Amino acid sequence: MTRIYARPLSPRFLTSPSPIERNKMLNRITIPRWFDRHLHIRDSEMMKTVLPCTLKQRATGAIIMPNLADPISSIEKAKAYRERITVVYQAHAEGTPGYYSRFEPCMTCYLTDSTSPDEVVRGFQEGVWRAVKLYMANQKGQGGTTGSAHGVKDLLGRYPVFEAMEKHKIPLLGHFEAVEEDVDEFDREIVSVDRDLKPILKSFPGLPVVFEHLTDGRAADFVAGYGCCDEHATLFATVTAHHLMINRNAMFWGGMNAGHYCKPVPKRESHRQRVRKYVTGGHRRFGAGTDSAPHDEQMKSRCYGCAAGIFTAPTAVEMYTTAFDEDNALEHLGAFLSENFLGTYGMRVSSEQMTIERTPLKVPVKVGAVQVFKGGTELPWKLVG
Ligand code: NCD
Ligand code: ZN
Q1: Is 291 a catalytic residue?
Q2: Measured from the CB, is residue 175 less than 6 Å from ligand 1?
Q3: What is the pLDDT of residues 109-142, one digit of tens each?
């Protein structure tokens, strides 16, 4: 009897289809200067190394994350941190008049279990901070990401703060990922949507909430569909450049790749595509927040306990532009980078412009001791002024 062999199935490629006819005619795009809605610049020497990257990227300002080793959890600390940022900014601005014109470091308050509603409101009213950052920690005091161990353990206990924030329209910037050890790493975001975000939104319908660095397609559907209409939207999301570009395979392909490890971790390809559809499709509730998070090589090269964070600051604009171009959607780039829900942070759309050209750009491999995301590769777009 002849044996009948079953043929192995050929692989189905899951990468995004490239548009049939890309708009190759558009070689130059001018949009208002942009705003980074989520940025880590650290402190001291590291700040001197990384802040100039965002300045050179022509950002009008950035939402400065407060997760330093000593978290920015009081008005005094936030004021002092802003001073230190301003010193570094001015040192760079002096040598290049005009170029670095106006960069607004928008401070955030690191919410802990003991932050009082009064402190939050006072810091906001005194113009010290623009928003409150929510990190969560589990009952053992372990945070889910870098610098989050001082985060909130008792979310319900924070409701009086949320109530005050709702009254004064102080935005809550949430790192929504479940922090219990036994939750599957790739489901942390969607578990937190059901467990944490939905009850907050239900209890405080007038509270502006930004879902930070969104990665899960289900979370994206939720943000896009929440509430009655865009005009009255209270829920928004930031999306990073790296999460638009890589899926979870990038962490493991060819060996473990610490340079592709960040929190939330990149998800499977179908999630990347779903998130990207809202972003490049021009949905107004999604805006650019790089979550550029520098760690030196030593922290990134630990065999166990490798630090979470991807550094994109040097070429973030070009990376976002590349994603929009690949989806044939450059007409939506300006809103995503420079307009969407800026009012939530008390920012206006800039009257100054920036121009990006279809010119090859080599991504630097390193800035100081920090490896750059996709370092050494080439991008087809370049910010030219
Ligand atoms: C951030 C960091 O390094 O501060 N890391 C990261 O992976 N994104 C913290 C954070 O935003 O989660
Ligand atoms: Zn971050």
Answers
A1: yes
A2: yes
A3: 999 999 999 999 999 999 999 999 999 999 998 9
Structure tokens at 174: 């949430």
Please state the domain extents for the chain. Answer: 36-351
Does residue 272 contact residue 248 with C-beta atoms inside 8 Å?
Answer: no
Tokens representing residue 248 in the block? 């979870």
Structure token digits, residue 98: 């005009």
Tokens coding 112: 């802990």
Q: What is the pLDDT of residue 22?
A: 52
Residue 23 to residue 26: CA distance in whole angstroms: 6
The CA distance from 234 to 199, in Å, is 14
CA of 84 to the centre of ligand 1 (A): 21
pLDDT digit string, tens, across residues 196-229: 999 999 999 999 999 999 999 999 999 999 998 8
- Pairing verdict, β 353-357 and 382-383: antiparallel
Q: Which of the listed residues 243, 262, 312 should we mutate to test ligand 1's pocket, taking the one with most ligand atoms within 8 A of CB? A: 262
**pTM (two decimals):** 0.95
Point out the catalytic residue in the list 196, 216, 291, 327: 291
Q: Tell me, which fold does domain 36-351 have in CATH?
A: TIM Barrel (3.20.20)
Q: What's the CA-to-centroid distance between 27 and ligand 2, angstroms?
A: 32
> Each residue of 234-271: pLDDT tens digit?
999 999 999 999 999 999 999 999 999 999 999 999 99
SS3 call for 343: helix
Burial of 205 (0-12, 13-18, 19+ CB in 10 A): exposed
Atom 9 in ligand 1: residue holding the nearest Cα: 146
CB 137 within 8 A of CB 143: yes
